[in-house]
Amino acid sequence: MPAAIEAVRNGVEDDEVYDLVCVGFGPASLAIAVAIQDEGITARTLYLERQQQFKWHGGMLLPDARMQISFLKDLATLRDPRSHFTFLNYLHSKNRLVAFTNLSTFLPFRVEYNDYLTWCASHFDDRVRYGQETLEISPRQSKSGLVESWDILSRDVWTHERTTVRARHVVIAVGGKPRIPAALSDMSPKSSIVHSSSYSSTVPRLLAAKQADCHVAIVGGGQSAAEIFNDLQTRFDNVSVCLYTGDSALRPSDDSPFVNEIFDPHRVTEFYDLPAEAQKDTLHRNKATNYGVVRPELLDRLYESMYHQRLHEPDESKWRHRIAPRRVVIGYDEQAKGRARLRLKNTINGEENLSDAAFDLIIVATGYVRDAHMTMLDPTKHLLESGKYDVGRNYKIRYRKGAVADDCGIWLQGCCQDSHGVSLPSLLVAFSVVTDHAQLSDTLLSILAVRGGEVVKSIFPRANGLHNEVRNGIGGRR
Fold first, then answer.
1. Which residue in 57, 34, 46 sits closest to 134, CA to CA?
2. d(Cα 370, Cα 290) in Å, to the nearest integer?
């Protein structure tokens, strides 16, 4: 156990101030940790993570699923291809570089990319506290009233013991909470409703417990809904499944090279400098890149599956695997044995009806809510300049002038789409199954390495250029 953790006894740690505390230790914070290491910066850092161990969207690591962007857009290459933390160096360390080259692909298996991220995270085990849920961040003021540091209150997810640490700089990168449609949010605990984020860790176990045929509904029209629809009919012989989407059809994503330039690192500044209306227009125009859309090759596979059914049974109502377009869920009726029939509304004529089947399981692939920072930051609201959590180009929250010391601040990651646009990273372009309705956001993997470097330079400006002198040791070029 790290000494700092051992020092915690009464819920309050010693008065030593961290240079940086990152709330959340997913890919965004991991990219920051990697950049700090590569830059050769000596700093007292701490990462607080709710999960018990590092795992990248473990609930959607489906068999044979591949990444959707090049492995070159890893945690380091676009910022520094000489880094120890590149995907290629990971392959080399695992003795798989030559074998991977023989695959002739830029798109690794998703489980392999999760292993890459886990490998990177393992380098920082002594600086991460897993099983810690951050509750709030409070300003700590000097006698003059100037905020010079922040108190970060967290709770152990198992023991519920509360701990406070102090830091001059805080990064919030906690990801999103599963979004459950309002029409289904009050379903009885007896009814089985599962969000796509926990699909692979929950659904196979539930289906294995079913002896007879099982009826499953999927709500959503993006990549995650399509992947789950494909997985259910591929792996489970006892499942009948119907996918409901409000659109007239499942639509393809656009990853053509000219369109993909919107994810280039320099596009962030271009977008940030646009007027508000132009920003909204740009987001709308680029919706098809990864917003409620499906990879074309998966669409081809699904259509072929539908055709095989049509070949043997012309009546679609008798198919085991169906797609129901132009249907939105507006409610449900509970049935016997924990089943539920969905109340549906036709998006064309407004007609309402009940689903033909009573479903044993309902899977919602309806994205995430990204507002966790609002609750955490509530104790700092009185410091805001505009009443909103506006951020600068460097992702730092703009507090009232003169309220916070220059060498102090809070940075937001993964919730700045409106100001920074579609190029901003985490992992949703690469892993679009996670947020079918919120993928066109600053949570994109495409420039995660670059953004991590920018944040580090913003927090540690005096360390800029230090990495040019560092080639061994903490610099990470091992």
1. 46
2. 17
